[in-house]
Amino acid sequence: MATVHSGRARALASRAWKVLRANWHLGVTAFGGPPVHFKIFNDKFVQRAKWIDEQLYQELFSISQSLSGPASTKMLYCINLIQDGFLAALFSFLIWTLPGALGMYGLSLGVANIGDTLPRPVYALLSGLNAATVGVIALAAVELSQKAITDKLTRLVVCISAGAGLLYNALWYFPVLMVISAVATLVSDMRWLQKPIGALVRGSSRLKPRRRRQPVRETGTEAGVGEPVHATQTSARATSYELESRIGAASQIPAAPRSDLPVTEQEGQNAPVAGTSSSASTAENEPRIVPRELQINISWKKGTAIILCFFLSFVVAMVLRSSLPSPPGPPLLYRLFSNMYLAGTIIFGGGPVVVPLLREYVVAEGWVSPRDFLIGLAMIQSFPGPNFNFAVFLGSLTAINNGYSSAVGALLAWIAIFSPGLILVHGTMGIWSAARNQRWVKSVLRGANAGAVGLIYTAVYRIFNVGYLAEGYQAGRSLGDDPWWVVVTATSYIGGRWFGVNAPVAILLGAVLGLVWYGVVGA
């Protein structure tokens, strides 16, 4: 018995060492947000370690983008889940998130002890950080758009979701936009409206009066006889012969294989027409054969049960939050937990979306001042790991400002913001093996992904409108009020887009340019 336990302990230690050796540096070196994180994961786990193949990586990318919660964290969790199981995935999550979470917790303790006003150089520094952050998030939106846009429909979905996100703001609004985006691509790809619209067009064409053709006479002879021959008779015989020829030829041509969804916009534009002999799409509707070592030992029943249990817990948490009498209402720490749980459940699009939208869950409640929120917003971009660690900063400040333990507030916010995404993606991996070949699943993911990318443009607009900090405007004002901050934003975007400047370098450059502004203008 002791031998069995020692063998299990050695095996567990070996797996833990394997996970630690592969993931230890990611939590302290992965700067730049989800777009950069995804590239790091591809280089490490697909190209070098060969833990997964490229096709499985693309599937995990779609799942991570389409479910709520931190996108890059879900991707890393799934990669380790496939490789070594649940404990390895959980261990990799801790390695990935704890360095940034501890850093943001320390920052919250420092911010809680500063006065109501900051030195003017600090405002300039933070404004420079915010301006550079806008450029970095804008670049992330453009790069994700290139992957999310596979045809004209998804291009339209990105544009409409971005525009709709600018026009209105509510807790329920963004999930509704995601659902509408998914339904739009589903209806289009399944061609559910093709027959009704075709019948409507044919019905309207029958209502139009038809013109009677007047026969045109030609002069000519038939078999040497000088009788005139009607052109309509000759045309009718030619048309009949041509139709018979086409029918006979068509009966000998096999039907073209039905292509699946386009992978890229170029592929969507160059998709072969049915009945032609051109090659089929690269996203051909073929069964996905997954190697045994890349399969997950989670049944679809267990995956479904996990998802249903999560939604049950979500409903219970929200009902308790709203049903308790107010005043006194639920305890503040429970309200903090439920707000973060709600944010982790309904926010799609990953870090670039969650950071500005958390303002509605914390600042609007009066728990954290707008100035402190913007300080954390500026600093989270220069921290490694997931942007969802911003919740640790906000939870700690909420607890401190209301007389509770900062560690308790930070821990509750950290658990609440990350749990929904990890639980949902764990359950989804159980049913994905059965659903991955369903055409409607791919359509839904395609639309939801495009809608999430559109919401990142909304985040760019909202941060731009509150990024300029000054002594008299601690709640933030538009970066467009001073052309210098627009230049900083453009510099950050152009540097990353065309000169390969990494996100941390661009953000630090923004801080330097903020101090330059203070030296030239502020002083």
TrEMBL record:
Annotated Basic residues bias: 205-214
Keywords for the protein's UniProt record, in alphabetical order: Cell membrane, Membrane, Transmembrane, Transmembrane helix
One GO location term (cellular component): plasma membrane
Keyword check for Transmembrane: yes
Membrane topology note: Multi-pass membrane protein
Entry's transmembrane regions: 81-102, 122-141, 176-193, 303-320, 340-362, 374-399, 411-432, 444-464, 501-521
InterPro entries in UniProt: Chromate_transpt
Domain of life: Eukaryota
UniProt similarity note: Belongs to the chromate ion transporter (CHR) (TC 2.A.51) family.
Protein name: Chromate transporter-domain-containing protein
Species of origin: Podospora didyma
Native organism taxonomy: Eukaryota, Fungi, Dikarya, Ascomycota, Pezizomycotina
